[in-house]
Amino acid sequence: MPSVRSLSSFALSTFGLGQSVLAGTSSNRLSQLSTRASATCNNPQLSCHNTTVQTNLCCFNAPGGSLLQTQFWDTSPPTGPSNSWTVHGLWPDNCDGTYEANCDDTRAYTNISAILKAASPDTLSYMQTYWKDYQGNDETFWEHEWAKHGTCISTLDPDCYTNYQPTEEVPDFFERTVSLFKSLPTYDWLSAAGITPSSTATYTSAQIQSALSKNLGGHSVYLGCSSGALNELWVFYNVRGSVQTGTFEVTDSLTKSTCPATGIKYLPKGTSSTPTTTKTSTSSPTSTSVPGTPFSGKGYLNVVTSGTQKGCLISAGTWYTSGTCATFTATASGSTFSLSSSKGTCGIVSGKFTCGSGVTAAQFTASGKALVYQGSGFSADSTASGSTQVTVYTGTGHSVGVEIDWQAV
């Protein structure tokens, strides 16, 4: 896939909601971006709030102008110290809740540990404690976060470096992510407000938001829950300048939280039991999500191809780019979940993602927001466009690779 900086179209959105970005041809930009962003960012504008068209994408993050520092609270199996949340990643968002992904396959490095050991050993050491995969595959997790999200941050593009050396941008991504995480002591902030891990107590969404927002200039965060238990949060930033050297300014969440209003569990690490008493409610709403995933309750299944969201799945399970996205329901079943639409249960029929009344329900898992079936993603024979519906297959054996991402509604 091409780098985000080689796109030749305009990326335009309304001031106050997004950002106006002029992306000219690669040759035009190469002459402007021959030095590292940190050396040339004079009076940079704040991403998602620019008042004029921006052409230097080494000093202005676009189209992913909202940067999310995402964190996990994994309890079963537990990850990281018992008194700390752990790092999930640093994600660029298009200032409106949509995002690009896997923007440059040529930079999908598979040796993150080796790169950091040579260039930033202290960062690697910290990650080995605080940036953990719940299945124990830390290296694979780091590779995934870099390839899916890091390659879509415009100010980390190789063109932004003087005398660029391959992988030079990787330490910048991980160092910035770690530094942001260190500035967000979520466990301590919650504890100071009397919100501590418990097998019996529950809390309200308002209590949790208040405890966090008072330390974030009053801004809201995204709260993610699995089976009614708090397990993820995202802090949103706009950036004045580059990711490497710019100023990160907290802003409100662009994504609707998946936690219930009351009865939220905050379990100790190593615990997966259901609480029997509550602090603020005598009953606990039931969530239909799976621990460690955002698949909860009702949502859309958006399709991402070549790093760009394009359409979604409709009720029969086909990929469509015109009309209304179908609303799917995710229902937990142990460590997996099933999906259904208005047509019926969703499953895999002759390798095809299909939903209908006679379909046997498949058990899915997730990698971040992405849907996974038996350890693999999805593909199609062509790209959906106009009124043409396209069948989506499991695995990567078809010509168009697609990622199916969950969007809670």
Question: Brief overview, please?
Answer:
Its main location: cytoplasm. The chain has 409 residues and is an alpha+beta fold. It has helices at 26-32, 37-40, 112-119, 121-130, 138-148, 169-182, 186-192, 205-213; strands at residues 66-72, 86-93, 202-203, 222-226, 229-240, 247-251, 264-265, 297-305, 308-313, 319-320, 328-333, 336-341, 344-349, 352-356, 365-367, 370-372, 378-380, 392-394, 400-408.
Total strands: 19
Instruction: Outline the low-pLDDT stretches.
Output: 1-39, 273-292
Major sheet attributes: 10 strands, antiparallel
Structural category: alpha+beta
Enter the CATH topology name of the largest domain: Ribonuclease Rh, Chain A
Percentage of residues in helical conformation: 10-25%
GO molecular function: hydrolase activity; ribonuclease T2 activity; RNA binding
Family: Belongs to the RNase T2 family.
Organism: Cryoendolithus antarcticus
Enzyme class: lyase
Describe this structure as you would to a colleague.
Residues 270-291 are annotated as: Disordered. Mean pLDDT is 84; it is low at 1-39 and 273-292. The chain has 409 residues and is α+β, with helices and mostly antiparallel strands. It has helices at 26-32, 37-40, 112-119, 121-130, 138-148, 169-182, 186-192, 205-213; strands at 66-72, 86-93, 202-203, 222-226, 229-240, 247-251, 264-265, 297-305, 308-313, 319-320, 328-333, 336-341, 344-349, 352-356, 365-367, 370-372, 378-380, 392-394, 400-408. It folds into two domains: 68-152 and 174-265, Ribonuclease Rh, Chain A (Alpha-Beta Complex), CATH 3.90.730; 297-408. Helix content is 17%, strand content 25%. The two termini are 30 Å apart.
